[in-house]
Design brief:
Oligomer: single chain
Distance between the termini: 28 Å
Order of helices and strands: HHEHHEEEHHE
Number of strands: 5
């Protein structure tokens, strides 16, 4: 016993990997095919929860790739791109169209907690529809100071609390939008 193990050496057990592939294999060319497979697997309704990474590494990563912050609003940044891609898809599964959105890694939260996307001015994390969510993200970019470090634990804990609030009866889809520098 003892010693250290690398996360790179940890893989799903063969049985678990096989079960995952049997549930929803990655073989779809069209969204309609994936949508049908999800419904066949019993996934008809979700609650999407979004966490936006506002750590300082968004500046460094963005500088390498785009010559500016990944949160830059003068172009279709990666965060906006993901939201645009998901906009026609998620409403087919998220029945209420209300999206709780949070931020982490900023000066307000650092690696300790999460905050509603527009805190402290607005402490309600809920956005109705993607257009409100996208505008909320743009507003947050203008009022948020990047910091760090990046850690997902507070956001995962927040999603668990939301799941508990639903009494465990709602499938939670946690979308972590990050630069990948963890």
């Amino acid at each position: 016993m003892g010693g250290s193990s690398s996360r790179a050496n940890i893989a799903p057990a063969p049985m678990m990997q096989q079960q995952l592939q049997n549930i929803i294999p990655d073989k779809y060319k069209q969204f309609s095919e994936l949508e049908q497979a999800l419904k066949y697997a019993g996934i008809e309704s979700i609650q999407m929860v979004i966490g936006f990474d506002f750590s300082k590494s968004n500046e460094w990563s963005g500088e390498r790739s785009y010559k500016q912050s990944l949160h830059g609003l003068n172009y279709l940044n990666p965060y906006l791109h993901v939201l645009n891609v998901l906009e026609p898809i998620i409403p087919k599964f998220d029945d209420d169209g209300i999206f709780p959105a949070f931020r982490f890694g900023c000066t307000l939260t650092r690696d300790q907690t999460v905050a509603p996307l527009l805190a402290p001015a607005n402490t309600d994390p809920h956005f109705t529809g993607f257009s409100q969510l996208i505008q909320g993200y743009k507003d947050a970019v203008q009022q948020t100071t990047l910091s760090g470090p990046t850690t997902f634990a507070p956001m995962i804990k927040q999603a668990i609390e939301i799941c508990k609030a639903y009494g465990g009866r709602q499938l939670i889809f946690l979308l972590l939008l990050t630069d990948g520098d963890v």
